[in-house]
Amino acid sequence: MGEIRRPNVVCLVAGICFNDSKQNKTCLDRMQEKFGAIESELAPILFVHTNYYAEEMGHALKKMYISFAKLIDPAELPAIKHFTNALEEELSIDGKRDVNIDPGYIETPKLILATTKNFSHRIYIGKGIYGDVQLYWKNGHFNANPWTYPDYKDETVLRYFEKVRNAYFNKLKELDSWK
User: Fold this and answer.
1) Which pTM was predicted?
2) How far, in Å, CA of 72 to CA of 52, rounded?
3) 15, 16, 65, 73: which could join 102 in a potential S-S bond, CB 3.0 to 4.6 Å?
4) What pLDDT sits at residue 25?
């Protein structure tokens, strides 16, 4: 029988797709008020992987990725997704979102995103939220699953999250909480 243990703290991350830079700045400010300082970011890049958001948010969207300095309990992810959904709604213009926020976390073996949509590969984690393993660590790199969102398969994005994972791993060693 396995021993039941508390999970390690994890690194909070988010992908933020946006149309208006001013609204995105407000989004980042609000997220920092709630979750603390941003530790690293991948500067905005053109979001060309899908037209999924075009009707609601327009064309020529950008997406950036961020990580936060403060490590969190992974059980906080459902509440974080509720906060980011409310923030998206608050920043909406005429009932249409101007930002889309994908919160998640990195732990040593994977990157998980929170979603409100159930599917065969998603696990219910509470409060109407599902966890979706987008990336897994193998052979010294993050790798995509068959269902991984196209932007998370991008080499630049993969390399960014590998750097975030390495910084997180070093923090765990400093905290002496590595199990």
Assistant:
1) 0.95
2) 30
3) 15
4) 96
* Range of the structural domain that residue 162 is part of: 10-174
Residue 140 sits at φ, ψ, to 5 deg, of: 80, 15
Confidence label for 175 from pLDDT (cuts 50, 70 and 90): confident
In-domain check, residue 137 = yes
Q: Is 123 within the bounds of a domain?
A: yes
Domain count, the chain: 1
Residue 30 resides in a domain: yes
Contact 63, 151 (CB under 8 A): yes
Place of tokens 């390495």: 166
- Alpha-carbon dihedral 91, 92, 97, 101, rounded to 10 degrees: 20
pLDDT per residue as tens digits for the range 66-96: 999 999 999 999 999 999 999 999 999 999 9
Distance CA 57, CA 117 (A): 20
| Domain contains 179 | no
